[in-house]
UniProtKB/TrEMBL annotation:
Domain named SIS: residues: 125-269
Sorted UniProt keywords: DNA-binding, Transcription, Transcription regulation
GO molecular function, one term: carbohydrate derivative binding
Stored InterPro entries: Homeodomain-like_sf (IPR009057), HTH_RpiR (IPR000281), RpiR-like (IPR047640), RpiR-like_SIS (IPR035472), SIS_dom (IPR001347), SIS_dom_sf (IPR046348), WH-like_DNA-bd_sf (IPR036388)
Pfam families in UniProt: HTH_6, SIS
PANTHER family in the cross-refs: GLUCOKINASE, MURR_RPIR FAMILY TRANSCRIPTIONAL REGULATOR
Name recorded for this polypeptide: Transcriptional regulator, RpiR family
CDD domains, per the entry: SIS_RpiR (cd05013)
UniProt keyword annotation of DNA-binding present: yes
Keyword Phosphoprotein: no
């Protein structure tokens, strides 16, 4: 994950640690060229504080921090130059404000999927999909609708899958699921009680699982085999999930596209069979016909 994006979202820092992080984010190009003593002096902190920050970022030391800053700087500057920071929708916003904010927030959420998840993580999940005899999608509320969309994709590929609507159905499946199934669990907060129970059932049964959840510390992370992340920014002033819905759909599109690409020859017959031409009208065909 991009180290600068990780800094923007890290929580529970001490005031002096936050001072270091803010200094780096304000001018990452300058910070990448500094030594630890210079950085401590310019940020009005100490070398010890900087070392604590590197540990919070799960880095080996200051040299690793400088290396990551140099490696991730161009990507970070590119995305921040193209799109303004995510902003919550406020009751006082004009229509123009809302259009701009929702558009910008959704675009940023899609881009963050790429930044939060490494190619190795995507590759691992695609391999798990290929090894599974069945894909089971779990989620409640809006996440459940996304599960049904994913199950439809699996159906078109001829892959056995489930996306049950009710908790009782999901819980029974989780408790009886064999180890050759793959559970894909969607929960933006990672704290929904029913989904945590389902994840615990799956873990107890040794069923491999993948979470799709917000990039925050949450209870779901400890219960799943692999974790994929979407943006953790959602406005309180909203109707259901907005950018989180879009980024979850985008993440699943990546997984299915990569899976199709890897298994194109074997999947093409199923894709051809499940294309229903009668559901499409020829260009120019009228409703009366």
């Amino acid at each position: 994950m991009n180290i600068l994006l990780k800094m923007k979202r890290i929580k529970d820092l001490s005031p002096s640690e936050r001072q270091v992080v803010n200094f780096i984010l304000d001018d990452p190009a300058r910070a990448a060229g500094m030594g630890i003593t210079d950085l401590a002096r310019e940020s009005f902190t100490s070398t010890g504080t900087i070392m604590r920050v590197t540990r919070r970022l799960e880095l080996d030391g200051f040299s690793s921090l400088r290396h990551q800053l140099a490696a991730d700087l161009n990507e970070y500057l590119e995305t921040t130059a193209l799109f303004r920071p995510q902003e919550p929708i406020e009751p006082s916003d004009t229509l123009s404000d809302i259009v701009d904010k929702v558009t910008s927030n959704n675009v940023r959420a899609v881009l963050d999927v790429r930044s939060f998840n490494s190619l190795d993580m995507f590759r691992q999940v695609v391999e798990m999909m290929g090894a599974a005899k069945q894909l089971d999608f779990y989620g409640s509320g809006l996440s459940n609708l996304i599960c049904h969309d994913a199950a439809m994709k699996a159906l078109r590929l001829g892959l056995p899958s489930t996306a049950y609507t009710y908790y009782s159905e999901q819980a029974m499946l989780a408790r009886t699921s064999p180890k050759d199934h793959l559970a894909i669990i969607l929960s933006y907060t990672g704290q929904t009680d029913e989904i945590l129970r389902v994840a615990q059932y799956l873990k107890s049964g040794g069923v491999p699982s993948v979470s799709i959840t917000s990039h925050t510390d949450n209870a779901l992370l400890e219960l799943c085999s692999v974790n994929l992340f979407v943006d953790s920014f959602e406005s309180v002033y909203r109707i259901g999930g907005m950018s989180s819905r879009l980024s979850s759909l985008h993440l699943l599109d990546i997984l299915f596209s990569a899976y199709i690409n890897k298994n194109y020859d074997s999947l093409k017959p199923s894709v051809d069979k499940t294309f229903l031409p009668e559901t499409f009208r020829r260009l120019g065909e009228s409703l009366e016909q």
